[in-house]
Amino acid sequence: LSRTATGRLPLTLPLSGLSSPLVLDPILGANREFRAPADADINVINQNDIDSVVLATTTSANENKRTKYNANAKVHICRTASALHHSWCREAIDAAESASNNWSTGRHHLYPTTDQPAADLPNGVGEATLDFATNVILPAIAMAFDTPLERLYFKDMFLAKYEPTGQPGLGRHTDGSAFSFNMLLSDPSTDFDGGGTWIEPVGLVQPNGGEVLMHRGSVLHEGCPVTKGSRYVLVGFVQSDDDDDDDDDGYRKSALASQLLQITIPSFPLGMIFEVDEGDKIKCAMVAHVEKGGTASEAGIKKRDCLRGILLSHAESDQHLLTFDGKTLDQVMEMILDVASKDLGPVQMIVERWC
Ligand SMILES: O=C(O)CCC(=O)C(=O)O
Ligand SMILES: [Fe+2]
């Protein structure tokens, strides 16, 4: 499948009044120790390289300026040297702590982090974070993975906190993204012990403060437990528009979060094709095609929406969610056909959409 919903899926709050909320059990992985071998395949990208990528993608005359790195490297590190950069990392942490009410463990399921949305950081830090991520990190990812910058966009970005007394680490998982980055905001020499990101097959990578670790979302990785102090990271999930769809209205371009929608579908058949990647740890139905003029299309369902389930209302007070989470394609088909055969009238489809 060209696009799958794997690993960590951002999720908004459960719908109110639902008897079975769309939240799965968190799993925190075992505390393991891994070290990167001395010759680990890690590419280092510096500020000059980043500038050259920006140039190469904005002016065709400079195309040959693009630096080629080892395309097989699993992990890339982006370094920016400026002192401003380091004071900004500190500002981002301070902003997050000044908005301490914004910490939540409900934004991601299966592998939840203790986090807050980057865009919501107060005192102008949210805007600055988006600026930095757009102007520095995205070009670095484009260069590291040799992928066109103009096709990259953010699916989610958040500031996460790890502490021995709270959430010390994050178990082994893959992300539901084409590329992921995590930027260390804390100073490892003074702020915390432990930490770092274990990435298969490189091992434990422990960047310096201000460095950005970049990898494909599909590689297995783990946020290693902090044993002392606090470790703050800016994490982003980046997607690539790799197929040129004519029905793509570009609404995901500035995506930073997902929303859960309750869409009324007046009648069956739905007129859409969906896919389930049965090899993934999380399975949910992704819309692959919506027939123009079909009931799903008329109801507002769009290509790449993630179908989470059907909400059946027997009465106001008696709502029941048939969840698609963890189901195979056959099982989802069966559930939909079963609801269709009962002729219940309009049904509510629960849809997760990047906004
Ligand atoms: O904190 C880390 O090192 C990894 C974070 C991560 O993998 C995630 O938030 O998806
Ligand atoms: Fe991750």
UniProtKB/TrEMBL annotation:
Pfam families in UniProt: 2OG-FeII_Oxy (PF03171)
Domain Fe2OG dioxygenase: 153-240
GO molecular function per UniProt: dioxygenase activity; iron ion binding; L-ascorbic acid binding; oxidoreductase activity, acting on paired donors, with incorporation or reduction of molecular oxygen
Database matches in PROSITE patterns: FE2OG_OXY
Keywords of the record: Dioxygenase, Iron, Metal-binding, Oxidoreductase, Signal
Protein name per the record: Procollagen-lysine,2-oxoglutarate 5-dioxygenase 1
Cofactor: L-ascorbate
Keyword DNA-binding tagged: no
InterPro entries: IPNS-like_FE2OG_OXY (IPR044861), Oxoglu/Fe-dep_dioxygenase_dom (IPR005123), Pro_4_hyd_alph (IPR006620)
Keyword Transit peptide part of the UniProt annotation: no
UniProt superkingdom: Eukaryota
Origin species: Seminavis robusta
